Amino acid sequence: MFPSSSSPIVYGLTLFLPLFLLFLLAPQFLPLRYNRQPSLISPQDELDDLRLFNLAISRATATSRGGSPKISHLGTVNPKPKIAFLFLTNSDLIFAPLWQRFFESSSTVGLFNVYIHADPSTPISTPEWSVKANFIPAKTTARASPTLISAARRLLANAIIDDPFNLYFALVSQHCIPLHSFKFVYTSLFGKPSSASKAFLTQRSHTSYIEILSDARYLHKRYTARGFGVMLPEVPFEKFRVGSQFFVLAKRHALLVLKERKLWKKFKLPCLYSDSCFPEEHYFPTLLSMEDPKGSSHFTLMRVNWTDSVNGHPHTYHPPEISPELIHTLRKSASSYSYLFARKFSPDCLKPLMEIAKDVIFRD
Questions:
Q1: Which is the most buried residue in 90, 117, 143, 233, by most CB within 10 A?
Q2: Coiled-coil region(s) at which residues (predicted)?
Q3: Check: CATH 3.90.550 for 43-63+76-361?
């Protein structure tokens, strides 16, 4: 029995302990009540997306069973596999002239398609390209939110519906630039255009190029951004992955993304701690790592400089840094593949980049 003199202390601790435990454990059991980040995805948006994804899946299924391929917006059906370039942007495509040069470096226009998800809340002008740029029906997006996942999935779905010969899907932003000619990019993914054939459409062994990291800095903080235990049981911490927001997905993995429902229920939840919540960098790497870990390269084809990042943004290149030496450096990769794209560049980099486009960027 405790001495009588200590009874007030014991009683005080007895009263304080439940309050302390409630404060400690409440976020784990009641995460949504304390959310500081509102949900930006309405039930109607979710329903619209579901219809779109199901249509894309059904179209792809019909094609794989020998159904008649749909003629793309380019007007002809080309039996060779194509790359779908998916631009996800909330501002003008500032490097459109450079991308135009990139597309013009292709000897055959029918080897690619272009799709743009432009945030409807921001006025965006149509790029003056000689190629057809398809602006898809878009929804509002916000940084560090699941709306960017939804936008990427809409781009994938529209590209699959539009042209059954889209076999690779390269997601880029308005701040991204190509580091090689189109011919080099195409050959890196498919081999020489002269040998690429419709047979690629039925092969199931294509590799996706997406960064997948299991030992990234602040990994646990990112995992618990929605509250402790919220991601369970679908996503245990040991299965949680981090990676680049931008990727090059093979068609089989693009369809996997559109079919997936279970993990999406977790990653679309609002966050308690927005400074460590970047679902667009978590969902795709985690999904592919869980469903097909050997089917992805685990590294990205997008070069990004994180040495002096600020508020989650990578290093931004400015005109004084643009040079042939920089392009050659950005191409270098620790893997057997060269980097094909790079980010992030300030708008005033366009002029110096155009000056070295022909003799450096598009000369492989």
A1: 117
A2: none
A3: yes
